[in-house]
Amino acid sequence: VLSAESYRRRHEISVTGDNVPPPFTSFEATGFPSEILREVHNAGFSAPTPIQAQSWPVALQSRDIVAIAKTGSGKTLGYLIPGFIHLKRCHNDSQLGPTVLVLSPTRELATQIQDEAVKFGKSSRLSCVCLYGGAPKGPQLRDIDRGADIVVATPGRLNDILEMRRISLHQVSYLVLDEADRMLDMGFEPQIRKIVKEVPARRQTLMYTATWPKEVRKIAADLLVNPVQVNIGNVDE
Ligand code: ADP
Ligand code: MG
């Protein structure tokens, strides 16, 4: 068994924040519900990736996180599984709107997140809806009306649907900004800020980014409260 320090050193993890919990170096250490452990086992995963190992214990403490890690490091389950556990604790009515909201820059990425949420969330009986532009609104509005615990959305389309008053974000208490640097590069900052205004201030906010330039630091400072920062490898500004 590795100490937290040696695991972090070995996997180039650096953390900042108060009392950052030690990483979960194995799936057994996570204490995840058995139906979730069964799904990761079925997927053939043998151990958490470094970003998962360090961000899961932080996210399970309901703390805000900024995670900086490159593509392919397993960030999606890094926020989805704590989101599933958050949902189980909430007992919200999905007919009244989602509890977990994930913002993603593109249709392609949003669809991948949706697929991961469906695959790993189905045994927990979670419902998930995906909203993106370049497709008719009708079916997406019908999906919303059926109710969803989790909404994965691109900022443009979600903002359009909010302006139509066809979705309510008043129950959202777990907000994820995935690929925050790309969303800002694509000019989505105004839409992100409008969306966040509709989300209650009492929430957990998780931001994932591959790079850490000043625009991303600024929006993190505005939207997150006392976050734990987790870096994997060298941080690219
Ligand atoms: P990122 O968002 O950091 O680019 P993804 O979340 O898309 O990365 O994950 C990349 C790939 O790794 C996906 O195919 C995912 O299913 C897989 N993956 C996630 N967690 C693990 C794990 N613990 N072990 C092995 N593969 C994993
Ligand atoms: Mg990703």
From TrEMBL:
Signal peptide per UniProt: none
Transmembrane spans: none
Domain DEAD-box RNA helicase Q: 25-53
Motif residue range(s): Q motif: 25-53
Domain called Helicase ATP-binding: residue spans: 56-230
Family of this protein: Belongs to the DEAD box helicase family.
Name assigned to this protein: RNA helicase
Protein's gene: LOC107415300
Residues of the full protein shown: 154 to 390 of 759
